[in-house]
UniProtKB/TrEMBL annotation:
GO terms for molecular function: metal ion binding; methyltransferase activity. Transmembrane segments: none annotated. It comes from Branchiostoma lanceolatum (Common lancelet). This is Hypp3775 protein. InterPro entries: MeTrfase_7, MeTrfase_capping, SAM-dependent_MTases_sf.
Length: 429
């Protein structure tokens, strides 16, 4: 092994710029592979019927250039959701019996590019460092799909992407180590007993496979088709049990996990904006505008039906179900639900507009970037494979530009309040 030369941040930036031509080539290859994988994903799933391996098809491809930090830069509201979990997370950490002579393994499941959880993980590392000094060694693993933007993750951690309000614990603390895992959380991602503390925010509502088409909407929550909603619910229940069983294997005895899931309140409200208060619901608006594109002939009826956001908002009862019966597979695997609370997180963009105002068009652009970061792939895959890539791109640009124009015309009406359940789970000794 040769020693790695120490470079200044300025020199590192020059090195990155010097490799830009090569990286653009790599981006092109990766983009092509993504399109091939998206187009032929059904063929990829053929083969031995081993359940974990059938769950590897990405539920969505991240939008934005690799290494740009697009997701976390535009996920203003998701920082607020994670912040709402701070008390529960620190209570979980404080309740654990930690052996300072062993590595303390933390995992962020469904981490995207890692930015939204970094302030929370900074607190965890700081707490452990204050309590135990330089011991124990802390190892943080970021888990997501193999197509996740891990490049942005490591550039953030090493200070190569600007984070003025989001410092890197990797740079500020010693004896901290970071890695990434590209194995889906529908599979067992780590060895038995590897994880001391697991965390996941707004990720496990994604489904492992497409249950059925939605004939009248792009999200099951705004569909009036009872049969389709039942199919989505059935798939979500199977996935939820599978996710928990995989985590039961990975958590060490006495380990803890905090999961933040999209949910509904007692009245069935699922977030996205309350129509009865004059707000425009994001999910209803996406469906309505896409339907308008079908009526105009910009997309076909078949493309509208095939455009589904591959996710499910579980009710509070659905999330608690695997823990209620002592004879359930999840309970027998050793998992116990310590506590659960449900609360809304107001839309950070809407709150900022109401507080500060500003340039309506710029505000709308930032809001749509947030929406597009998690929805773009659903609309892309809904379009026919017979369309050229340039045509698909033009349709999507036109679609999101129209939505942006509507937001700019009435910023006060558009927001994305998120309804979340926060679950504290422990692995029995």
């Amino acid at each position: 092994m040769f020693p790695t030369p120490k470079l200044s941040k300025k020199a590192l930036h020059k090195q990155v710029e010097g490799n830009s031509r090569i990286m653009r080539y790599i981006y092109g290859i990766r983009g092509t592979l993504r399109r091939i994988y998206s187009t032929y994903s059904s063929d990829f799933k053929k083969g031995p019927k081993w359940l974990p391996k059938q769950n590897s098809t990405p539920h969505y491809i991240p939008y934005g250039e690799d290494g740009s930090g697009f997701y976390s830069d535009n996920a203003l509201g998701y920082y607020s959701i994670v912040k709402n979990a701070e008390t529960m997370v620190m209570d979980a950490i404080n309740s654990m019996e930690i052996n300072p002579t062993q590595v303390f393994n933390i995992v962020d499941y469904g981490s995207a590019d890692g930015g939204t959880s970094m302030p929370l993980f900074y607190q965890i590392v700081d707490k452990l460092s204050q309590t135990y000094g330089k011991d124990p060694p802390i190892h943080v693993t970021y888990e997501d799909q193999p197509v996740a933007d891990f490049k942005s993750l490591f550039m953030r951690l090493h200070g190569l992407l600007s984070m003025p309000e989001n410092p890197s614990y990797l740079m500020d603390f010693n004896n901290v180590y970071v890695s990434a895992c590209g194995t889906s959380f529908f599979e067992q991602s780590f060895p038995n007993g590897f994880v001391n503390f697991g965390f996941s925010s707004t990720a496990m509502h994604w489904l492992s496979r497409w249950p059925c088409p939605l004939p009248d909407a792009v999200l099951h929550m705004v569909s009036s088709c009872v049969e389709a909603r039942q199919q989505f619910a059935k798939q979500a229940a199977q996935d939820w049990e599978l996710i928990l069983l995989q985590r039961a294997r990975e958590l060490t005895p006495g380990g803890r996990m905090v999961i933040i899931n999209c949910t509904t309140d007692e009245d069935g409200y699922f977030g996205g904006g309350r129509w009865d208060s004059g707000s425009v619901n994001v999910f209803q608006q996406l469906s309505s505008l896409w339907h308008t594109f079908a009526l105009r002939g910009k997309i076909t009826k078949e493309e509208f039906v095939n455009t589904n956001i591959l996710a499910y908002w579980r009710s509070q009862e659905e999330m608690q179900a695997p823990f209620v019966n002592k004879n359930s597979r999840v309970r027998k695997a050793g998992l116990t639900l310590v506590s659960m609370e449900t609360k809304p997180t107001p839309c950070a963009f809407q709150a900022r507009w109401q507080r500060e105002g500003g340039d309506a068009r710029q505000h709308a652009k930032q809001f749509i970037n947030m929406v597009r970061s998690w929805s773009n792939h659903a609309f892309y895959t809904g379009l026919s494979d017979r369309r050229p890539e340039e045509e698909k791109t033009a349709i999507l640009e036109s679609f999101f530009e129209e939505y942006e124009t509507e937001v700019a015309a009435a910023p006060e009406k558009h927001g994305m309040e998120v309804m979340s359940s926060f679950l504290h789970i422990k692995r029995d000794q």
